[in-house]
Amino acid sequence: MTGIVNSTDDIGFLRPFWNRTIGPPWLASLLVLVILAGVRFYATLGPPAARPLFLLHCLLMWALPFILLTVQGRREIGLLKQGSTAAAMAWSALAGAGCGLAVFMFGMALYSESPDNWCVSIRDSFRLNELRGSMPTTALFALIALPAMIVTPVGEEVLFRGFIQQAFSLRRNATAATAVNAFSFGLIHLHVHGIRS
Description:
- By secondary structure, the protein is mainly α.
- The protein has one domain.
- It has nine helices and no strands.
């Protein structure tokens, strides 16, 4: 695929309003990434009162395909694939839990409770000591654990491996799109390990 800014492949991806307002999908995906990164950084690095913005950020990631993309665009990022069954969802959840447990145990075996352990640095990035006492324990759990376990991963899949990946695949090719996707994902998560440690 060539580097044409608005190829015919781009036409049915974004809704016409966004195509006219923002431009091609790759530019729209970069704009969305900058806005969401700003909200995420402020929510996690700003004052404790800003923490609820993180949930808003997660919900916005979920809503983006329905706000920005056409039905064809949502199909291209994988939201309308046929064949999802309850058994497949259950096996996926079990596989995810098993992999998560294995990664946790691997981190504990290598680094114990030190800040070099990725699980510890992620836990510490939530500033739990500052938040304890400011709200009931169940509300604190709902504010931090539920988005971290459910809302954030699904939203990030939609944003990074869906919207950004497909927008840059339309612009260049799958290899370039994967490089942009991986760089963007790493950059938005850098504050957890880089700034916070």
